[in-house]
Design a protein that fits this description.
heterodimer; A: 7-stranded mixed sheet; 4-stranded antiparallel sheet; 39% helix; globular; B: 7-stranded mixed sheet; 40% helix
């Protein structure tokens, strides 16, 4: 007689499952409602990691100015600081000190009129958007206070910029109820014209914003000329209109490559400057800086004084809690690279941009729209737009892994469409050469397709022509009619898209 | 900026060493903000550190993850949506940005309404309690809205709904209630506010809405107090913000704001960006930012699920009780926080004659603990509290150790002569009581104002 019974194991120990055998990869991922149950951390990690594989590769994203590579030593520092809430200034005094040091260094880099050991007026932000909003707020409040003191109306403030301005200025204008007066561009002149800008200034203008490193073509606007013309206008009218320089990209390029270019606090009307730490400051996304000329340019009523267990720290930011990693990373870059390091890196970028530019010119198919002096990027347009556009090239480049966006210029140059490649620190020469060869391939493919389509359509037209109309007579089309039909057919084949405005 | 380059190892070491002198984030009991996540999540965050969130066309999956989080949080808050309907909301850098966006929406809606009625729209105001966090004051100052604060009183440290509704007038763009007051973790009575405000609206013909600042409470109430009606179940609640980096259990740098429906977010505030054909509406103050925290939030939502969050919050609540009971046993403290609310313990000394809470806080630092002391805002500035926030990573062992260390500090202070400052404070307290009794509104007690605003 059997004394013992074998009990079949009915429970399945799910913790033994290897990741892709578990039930978690069979279930659809929750999209709308918080799931009822927990899942193991390995499964959570794997499913999210796998979905994210379908995101673009940040380093091949040639659309963006924002840094996509940092040294592993810096990654270590970033990881260690992930759980530090920057705003706890009293708990993390060193981190706060590092921010202050960065502000001082940047202010000195921009020739702020401060003594050797004097602390600068400025702050770290999450990006240039926040920086610009803070600077704009300061201008708005100063202007309002002045108008109130003069007994004049202060309900219609405006700001003068070029139409090439980045979207964050439009946001500032709309959210803070300031009118945006834009100087229109024209074909061949894709930045703000200082003369036209000054002509638009009136008594309600809180400031004129110039861009050092236009988003679309990388060009530097002539801040010196703007300063001169505006000084003259101020004298004539008795107004006191200041300048803000949006140096989001150019602020970490001009001081290293173009030392003699006078664009910063050396010009008396420049009262504040913003720069993105996460562009050519060479830090990952999430840090920007705004620096004011002096204490007088930042109305004290905008500054909140927080006393944490006795230490008084003035703060003036839109965001409160945020991570500390990027601030620490910015300081790392400053002391690791120093002036010579930044200079070397930017020079490399310029060299690689030149390689790219020359490669494109050699194809004979492109007009280079960007200038050689400015942010290291290459913006180029097709010479012949009859059969395909830059949007088609952009789409086809994706197959090779490259993300190269195409844009139309803003008013009044909307008929110009360009491709833009931003050359970042990690865009090496070999990548530049590979990109040129891939663009070559794409253009050749598109040319082949055009020939093929032309043949097909022409054949069809011939057949139709030979088959005749309703009365059986032969209908011959002229060459021009054939060409037009080819173009119409081709245009239908390819969809046109309009875009503008990226950081 | 130094002239010369230095080796990367040197740069790393120098900075690492300086930072050793920062406080230890996990012993920082002042903050609600998450200080520990699972290593698997750390891996995901590090991998995403070079992704600029705003490049929506380049990183469509990351954008999709944000949208899923918005949907889940909206459903958690009982937004009136269909099963597969996309919610109206956005991820932000924190509750500050979230509140500014919500406030902007209210301001614009009110302005449009007043313009249509032909009435003046230049003096908008917002009604809140004096216990409100500093970001509301920032919103008011930067966006030129008047802040009408309902003052507190001793024993009642949140906004009184009746007083709030009294302060409402035709220029009020919204009434902001807090679910999880910064100072003592209490939940304000949003339901009562809703009922009273409905009445006032029907009497006056106005249409004043409610915003709930659920920065801390938004990830607690649905799990611990599901019967508590505070969210979109109340008809006047039009938007809610919550901090992903507090009880959403993600590192600093993420918040969420949800609107009831499309109508509550004026279209003119939304920017439409067309990147290579895909249209994505955006309404945030920040543009470029990291993607790590959004991905981490999604990780937490699917990793923990409803039961996981519930377990974590229940643990926090348990540990808060352990701490509270330990403090009560010393016989030296009054507990100012309530049992229901955010898992935190706010307590003050029964006897102020020899030493005060600031000294206690100072001495606790020697043991490594960061436990801040604050004075309450008007009209209860004479009350000082110490506050310990119980986060996910504050285990029972740590709670018991904290109690032991507080007892040690009390013994140390007892052995010391009385602090001259605290004697003055007792006199000031007496004067303040007298002033209040005379009906004067007490102004700030000292020029070195101790803060009440921390997140």
């Amino acid at each position: 007689m059997v004394l013992s019974k074998a009990v079949p194991s009915s429970s399945h120990d799910a913790s033994l499952d290897c990741t892709f055998a578990s039930r978690y990869v069979r279930a659809p991922l929750p999209r709308f409602k918080l799931p009822e149950e927990s899942i193991p951390k390995e499964a959570a990690y794997q499913v999210i990691n796998d979905e994210l594989m379908l995101d673009g590769n940040p380093r091949l994203n040639l659309a963006s100015f924002v840094t996509t590579w940092m040294e592993p030593e810096c990654d270590k520092l970033i990881m260690a600081a992930l759980n530090k809430n920057y705003v706890d200034m009293d708990e993390y005094p060193i981190t706060t000190e590092l921010q202050n040091r960065c502000v001082n260094m940047i202010a000195h880099l921009f020739n702020a009129p401060i003594g050797e050991e004097e602390t600068a007026v400025g702050v770290g932000t999450v990006g240039s958007s926040e920086a610009i909003m803070l600077a704009g707020l300061a201008f708005k409040r100063k202007w309002q206070n002045k108008r109130k003191a003069e007994g004049m109306p202060y309900d219609k403030p405006n700001i003068v910029t070029g139409a090439n301005v980045q979207v964050c200025w439009e946001k500032f204008a709309r959210y803070f109820e300031v009118e945006l007066k834009e100087v229109k561009l024209k074909e061949g002149y894709y930045v703000m014209d200082p003369e036209k800008a000054v002509a638009m200034v009136d008594e309600n203008t809180i400031c004129v914003a110039a861009i050092l490193g236009s988003t679309l073509t990388g060009e530097f606007e002539d801040v010196k000329k703007l300063n001169e013309l505006l000084t003259e206008k101020n004298k004539e009218t008795g107004w006191d209109v200041p300048i803000h320089v949006d140096a989001a990209s150019g602020g970490f390029i001009a001081p290293f490559l173009y030392k003699d270019l006078v664009w910063d606090f050396r010009l008396p009307l420049v009262k504040s400057i913003n720069v993105s730490g996460h562009k050519y400051g060479l830090v990952y996304a999430g840090v920007g800086w705004v620096v004011w000329r002096s204490k007088e340019d930042l109305p004290d009523e905008l500054v909140f004084h927080i006393n944490y267990l006795g230490a008084d720290q003035p703060t003036f930011t839109l965001n409160f809690s945020k991570g500390s990693s990027q601030i620490i990373a910015q300081y790392y870059q400053f002391i690791r690279l120093g002036f010579e390091g930044y200079k070397n890196i930017i020079e490399n970028c310029m060299e690689n941009a030149k390689v790219l530019r020359q490669g494109l010119e050699q194809t004979g198919k492109f007009n280079i729209v960007s200038k050689e002096v400015g942010v290291p990027l290459v913006a180029f347009a097709l010479k012949d737009r009859t059969y395909y556009t830059v949007f088609d090239i952009s789409e086809n480049l994706r197959r090779f892994g490259w993300i190269v966006p195409a844009y139309t210029m803003p008013a009044d140059a909307q008929h110009i469409a360009v491709l833009r490649v931003v050359v970042r620190e990690d865009f090496s020469r070999s990548l530049a050469e590979r990109l040129v060869s891939d663009i070559h391939k794409v253009v050749q493919e598109l040319d082949e397709q055009v020939k093929h389509v032309t043949k097909v359509v022409t054949t069809q037209v011939d057949i139709t022509a030979r088959g005749g109309g309703t009365d059986g007579a032969l209908v011959h089309k002229s060459e021009q009619e054939i060409a037009e039909e080819v173009i119409t057919y081709w245009k239908k084949l390819v969809s046109r898209k309009k875009t503008s405005g990226v950081c | 900026m130094p002239e010369n380059t230095i080796p990367k190892e040197a740069a790393y070491q120098i900075i690492n060493d300086e930072l050793m002198l920062d406080g230890n984030p996990r012993l920082n009991l002042a903050s609600f903000v998450t200080t520990w996540m699972e290593p698997e999540c750390d891996k995901l965050m590090m991998a995403a550190i070079n992704k600029n969130y705003v490049d929506m066309d380049e990183y469509p999956v990351t954008t999709e993850l944000q949208n899923r989080c918005v949907n889940m949080i909206a459903h958690l808050f009982n937004a009136p949506l269909g099963e597969s309907e996309a919610a109206v909301g956005v991820g932000t850098v924190g509750s500050s940005e979230a509140i500014m966006l919500a406030g902007l929406a209210f301001k614009r809606r009110w302005q449009n309404k007043r313009k249509a009625e032909g009435k003046p729209y230049d003096k908008p105001n917002i009604v809140t309690g004096a216990n409100v966090q500093v970001c509301w004051e920032k919103f008011a100052r930067y966006f030129e809205v008047e802040l009408k604060e309902v003052n507190l009183r001793e024993g009642y440290y949140v906004m009184d709904p009746e007083k709030a509704v009294e302060l409402v007038d035709e220029n009020t763009i919204c009434v902001a209630a807090i679910l999880g007051s910064t100072l003592n973790g209490e939940f304000e009575d949003v339901k009562l506010l809703n009922d009273l405000l409905i009445k006032k609206n029907s009497e006056t013909g106005w249409d004043v809405p409610i915003h709930v600042d659920a920065a801390s409470g938004g990830f607690i109430a649905p799990f611990l107090y599901p019967e508590l009606e505070w969210d979109f179940r109340l008809p006047l609640v039009k938007s809610i913000n919550v901090s992903g980096h507090k009880y959403g259990l993600v590192y600093a740098g993420i918040g969420w704001v949800i609107w009831r429906s499309k109508e509550d977010l004026p279209e003119e505030l939304i920017f439409h960006i067309n990147y290579l054909g895909t249209e994505q509406p955006t309404f945030t103050l920040n543009f470029s930012k990291g993607s790590s925290q959004v991905i981490a939030q999604y990780y937490q939502l699917i990793r923990l699920g409803f039961e996981g969050y519930k377990n974590v919050m229940e643990n926090c609540q348990e540990n808060a009780m352990v701490l509270k009971e330990g403090l009560e046993r010393t016989g030296r403290f009054t507990i100012v926080s309530k049992d229901n609310g955010i898992p935190l313990v706010a307590f003050s000394l029964k006897d102020h004659s020899r030493h005060d809470e600031f000294e206690l806080s100072h001495h606790l630092r020697q043991f490594g603990w960061i436990v801040p002391a604050y004075t309450m805002p008007a009209d209860a500035q004479h009350i000082t509290v110490l506050r310990v926030v119980i986060r996910e990573d504050f285990s029972r062992g740590l709670a018991e150790r904290l109690v032991l260390d507080i007892e040690k500090v009390l013994r140390e202070l007892d052995a010391l002569p009385p602090n001259g400052k605290s004697m003055k404070r007792s006199a000031d307290v007496a004067n303040c009581h007298a002033a209040l009794a005379n009906g004067h509104v007490a102004k700030k007690l000292e020029t070195d104002k101790k803060t009440n605003a921390i997140c």
